[in-house]
Amino acid sequence: MESGTLLSHVDTDLVTREQLALVQTPDATRSFKPVPHIELINTLEHVLKLNQITIRKEQFALRRDGATLFGVLQLAYQDTKDGMAALGLRTSNNRTMSIQLCAGLSVFVCDNMVFRGDLIALNRKHTSGLHLRTEINHAVLRFQDHFCRLTGEIETLKERSLSDTEAKAVMHDVFTQGILPIRLLPDASNLYFEPFVDEFRPRNAWSLHN
To answer: I need a labelling partner for 187 at 20 to 30 A (CA). Which of 4, 18, 60, 63 fits?
Structure first.
């Protein structure tokens, strides 16, 4: 399964890394330090590789004025399945947006400004004091720490078997407490008790969570 989604539909075009290298970057000022899009991506890839994380798939969307970049990177990380982790990014060189990275098992980036992940790993303005390599290093370290804790929690859920009665009780509480709208109860029940995705067939807490 893909863990990251990039949606491009509002004044943006999907582009390759090679096309990003052709985008002109505005001149820096005393207080503003724009970062070339290709420099951001190449630095991010370099730091990831130093931490034994490789980019399995990448997608980028660029506003037609070239200033604003959105992206999703599908990652192969340690012993996880390819694509289990992802990084989302967005940045702009027209002073409207900082450099932002989100990360996790499920990442969604859209050019309408939706930006969602389990962790916001970086949110740094383009100031004159910006040191890109250092900021990316810190972001990747935060991602690793978060991901290790998250995968540990997932393994705990996978090891927790549930009887049908226990699963029904959890569903009951979720809907009666208003965590999810009651209209979704039939769908949730069917997806758990009659799953069409093989990895969610086990009767455990991880399957129920999904």
So the answer is: 4
Lowest mean pLDDT among 58-67, 82-91, 153-162: 82-91
DSSP characters over 3-68: -EEEE--SSEEEE-HHHHTTS--PPP-SSB----HHHHHHHHHHHHHHTTEEEEEEEEEEETTS-E
Q: How far is CA 83 from CA 42, 78, 192, in A?
A: 19, 11, 23
The answer to whether the CB of 206 falls within 8 A of the CB of 105 is: no
Could you tell me how many helices (H) and strands (E) the chain has, helices first?
Answer: 6, 9
CA angle 3, 5, 7 (to 5 degrees): 175
Q: Which residues contact 35 (CB under 8 A, 6 or more apart)?
A: 25, 91, 93, 99, 126, 130, 132
104/206 Cα distance (integer angstroms): 16
The residues, any chain, with a CB within 8 Å of residue 205's CB and separated by 6 or more, are: 157, 158, 160, 162
Over residues 105-138, the pLDDT tens digits come to 889 999 999 999 988 989 999 998 999 999 999 9
Q: Which residue has the tokens 């705990």?
A: 156
What is the rounded CA–CA span in Å between residue 64 and residue 22? Answer: 13
